[in-house]
Records
---
Amino acid sequence: MTARSVQVAIIGGGVMAAWTAFHLARRGVKALIVERSFAGSQASGVNYGSMRVQGRYLPQLPLSLRAQAIWEESEKLLGVDVEFRRMGHIHVAVDAAQMDKIERYAVDAAAYGLHPEIVGRDALRRRWPWVAQHAVGLSWSALDGAVNPRLVVPALAAALRDMDVTILQGRRVVAAEKDGRGFALATEEGEEIRCELLLNMAGAWAGEVSAWFGEPVPLFVAGPSEMVTEPLPYFMEPTLQIVDGSIVVRQVERGNVIVAGHPRGPADAVAMRARMPGGKTLTNLQRVADIIPCLSGASIIRTWSGIEGYMPDMIPVIGPSATTSGLWHAFAFSGHGMQLAPALGAVMSEFVLDGRSATPLDAFSIARFREKAAVDEEYLKQEFDAGIVKV
Ligand SMILES: Cc1cc2nc3c(=O)[nH]c(=O)nc-3n(C[C@H](O)[C@H](O)[C@H](O)COP(=O)(O)OP(=O)(O)OC[C@H]3O[C@@H](n4cnc5c(N)ncnc54)[C@H](O)[C@@H]3O)c2cc1C
């Protein structure tokens, strides 16, 4: 079989790869995406869809704010409404410590150009009367929103097809090595691919790829717990999240209320399955009723999960390889990558084409794991209430 030869190859066909290939194609470079299954079939297609900016790790705000501006333009860019809605996000405090946390965050975030509004108990009652009486205050970010994840990668894939970009689906990359000035990739299906630049965007499986280049990372996998109610009369506009992250609730225009609840559940990266543990349905439903009393008695019609890659510090790996020139990583988005994806793609395209980007990425370097490449089992025990399968 003859080898395909491309300038840029991307391992993984999730939202990171799709937005990166989109930005590259707009500047004339047709990357080759290699996806072992269907594009967008993993985390990118099954996530909660929260486009939350507030509350993010502060050095991530430049990327996050840039991403939100691109989501705002997504319908124009993609020619499809992916149901991005800027309906805001409230971070609700239920005690003084949580209130203090959001007040401090609002001050710190201002330095990055994000200005959440702190709302006290009385104003909260007036503006969001459906929030439970025991809430002591909240932080309101008007620019946050949500998207329908099921629509995003298919919309990008259609746009890529129109730009003559190839997504090789059903091809699993099983080996990659530096070959002269470029790279040689082999797929399980017997395909050979040569490229000048290689982007590792293999999501929860990206640690396998980085290890091929002498860069093992302490990546672990888990499955965020999601569930959705029957359609109910529309009443809540912003997404509500308790400051400790224990529950996140949003209502779509069709009326269904979508709920994400922590902690995360187990995921099996080998079998490629993740499920929401049964008992969590009741726990999460009770939490919802506690903070939004009018939702007590709502019926859950579906629960689900997905496989996400996490780093122990809960921030992704983004940037050049520390061992191999021409190799770039962007993976382990630790439960919050969907929102970042359009800007991640823009930044990666800038690095590939210009060698630099104005959006800072230093905090995300893979080099931070040089000293600590193994998964910390103690940490995992504390983090999870259910079993974990490592990649
Ligand atoms: C249930 C859930 C809820 C979430 N909620 C939110 C949210 O509300 N907001 C938010 O911002 N983020 C959220 N996230 C996180 C977000 O979905 C992810 O961070 C993001 O989708 C990661 O995109 P990706 O392209 O890196 O990974 P993926 O979508 O996992 O794509 C990686 C792809 O690589 C492919 N692949 C792996 N290895 C190989 C190989 N060797 N060869 C070829 N292909 C390979 C896989 O098949 C996969 O399709 C959530 C995630 C989950 C699972």
Note: The CA atoms of residues 124 and 383 lie 32 Å apart.
---
Amino acid sequence: MKITLCVLTLNEIDCLQAIFDSIPTPNIESGYDEIIAIDGGSTDGTVDFFQDRNIKVIGQSKRGRGEAFQLAFEKIQADAFIFFSPDGNEAISDLNKFRPCLENGADVVIASRMMKESVNEEDAQFFKWRKWANNIFNFAANLAFRRSGTYITDSINGYRAITKTAAQQLELNAHDYTIEYQMTIRALKMKLRIIEFPTIEGERIAGETGAPSIPTGLRFIRRFFIELFEPSKSIPK
Ligand SMILES: Nc1nc2c(ncn2[C@@H]2O[C@H](COP(=O)(O)OP(=O)(O)OP(=O)(O)O)[C@@H](O)[C@H]2O)c(=O)[nH]1
Ligand SMILES: [Mg+2]
């Protein structure tokens, strides 16, 4: 199974300088066969950073994480894709956990920040606003779309993998940060095999979030209702 590690960036030069060189080069143990960057139009030297390291960069014509996912599915020849954000949130030590799940038949693999052994960025705080909101989105997705299989604990995390076959089946069309929620919801609707493993979420190392909580939260609510009334992706009997 050929697996591509897709590194998603929009102006992440400071974070890349801090962590990129600790990402293992593709080999038998790394869990992926190649690394390709998908860039949303960085202007801070991110693209030059990759090119200096001979990492292929696919440049987006339109911004958006959803655009990046769709470009990956369209342009990269692979059997499966791991999506990784190099901003410090995602544990590099978990990169090799995706392949065994994919080779065991998973269609979608999610690194979960909400399972028993997981750590969420907000766990040390008393008010865990983002975690609580995420758990409401998780509950809604499971309640409305899960017909079999286990409860999905982290329906929106970006640190995940999907097979090419599943990506084609799901016909994802979200352009923005709701791409992962759409992927999880449609995978639930189509009864695909979703496997989660616990991960430890780190803090963003530098730079600014592209996903401010309130507007992004509103987009998730809208996404939920679009998927609820989406006629072409009905729940199989
Ligand atoms: N390719 C691509 N990557 C993007 C785009 N927008 C954001 N990203 C990347 O997606 C990753 C996640 O975005 P963040 O802004 O960190 O969102 P977040 O993780 O919810 O927010 P933080 O808590 O600040 O980390 C980062 O690596 C971004 O650089 C885009 O349009 N295209
Ligand atoms: Mg982040």
Note: The pocket of magnesium ion (ligand 2) is lined by residues 85, 87, 89, 204 (CB under 6 Å).
